[in-house]
UniProtKB/TrEMBL annotation:
GO function terms (MF aspect): ATP binding
UniProt key word Transmembrane helix: no
Domain ABC transporter: 3-237
Protein name: ABC transporter ATP-binding protein
Organism: Parasphingorhabdus cellanae
Keyword annotations: ATP-binding, Nucleotide-binding, Translocase, Transport
SMART domains given in the database record: AAA (SM00382)
Length: 269
């Protein structure tokens, strides 16, 4: 199932957030969306999941307009881990994770297949031991794993995550990205908004770089994550180094105004 977007234009509060952007995502791949604050990363993700309707353009799933699908069908196809997700119900963890099955559940409640999917998702995110604990009493890292389990329980063909590493320590960041990579390897599509260039370079198959609402570059990681493109996107000089294990490391130094960074003070939309 291909997820595509064409000529998306989105204006919020009188400001053009997305400017005629187009692209296509492949299942079985991790695509990372990069860009400075205010570049339009979260807004693009919101359009891709159907939370925001663009002023023009379209999002399609296998040539079917996303907004023509009913909520249940859309929920089975696409799962979203939003930016700064919060848990507002002091219920046990297995109940929170079970909410991910709502697009699949029948009128009589959860089936055996639903319960099996919840158990599988909790095991995949190392949440099994948390099943009976109250979700609001968990640490931030534990809550992050629980909310990822909720998305995985829905078994979506596409998993979209908006800055899933925020507030996580390095060990948990690596763990979350490994789980997302595994989900893609299993044949699903994964789209992630990240700020950490080193993590993007390690885990992404494809990269989309946004700058001021337009696509600056798009393609395989090796072709897009160059010092020149990253410097233009973020307005800093970038030096790329390789560790002794062959992993790419990214360093930045010296703000360069002539690179055209987004310095308008807008928060990420």
């Amino acid at each position: 199932m291909l997820l595509s977007f064409e000529n998306l234009t989105l204006t919020l509060r009188g400001r053009e957030i997305l400017r005629g952007v187009s692209g296509q995502f492949e299942p079985g791949k991790v695509t990372v969306i990069l860009g400075a604050n205010g570049a339009g990363k979260s807004s693009l993700l919101s359009c891709l999941v159907g939370l925001r309707e663009p002023q023009s353009g379209s999002v399609t799933l296998d040539d079917r307009p996303l907004l023509s699908l009913d909520n249940r069908e859309r929920g089975r196809a696409i799962g979203l881990l939003p930016q700064r997700p919060d848990i507002h119900w002091n219920v046990d963890v297995k109940t929170i994770v079970g909410l991910g099955r709502l697009p699949h559940s029948g009128r009589w409640g959860m089936s055996a297949a639903d319960h099996e999917a919840v158990v599988k998702a909790m095991a995949a995110t190392d949440c099994t031991d948390l099943a009976d604990r109250k979700a609001m009493r968990l640490s931030g890292g534990e809550q992050g794993r629980v909310l990822l389990a909720r998305v995985l329980a829905g078994e979506p063909q596409w998993l979209l995550a908006d800055e899933p590493l925020a507030s996580l320590d390095p060990a948990h960041q690596f763990d979350v990205l490994e789980r997302l990579k595994s989900y893609a390897i299993a044949g699903n599509g994964v789209i992630v908004v990240l700020h950490d260039l080193t993590q993007a370079a390690r885990f992404a198959d494809n990269i989309i770089v946004l700058k001021e609402g337009a696509i600056l570059a798009s393609g395989p990681r090796e072709e897009v994550m160059t010092a020149a493109i990253m410097g233009q996107a973020y307005g800093v000089e970038v030096q790329i180094g390789i560790s002794d294990r062959g992993n790419p490391w990214w360093f930045r130094f010296g703000v360069c105004d002539n690179l055209g960074a987004n310095r308008n003070g807008h928060r990420d939309e």
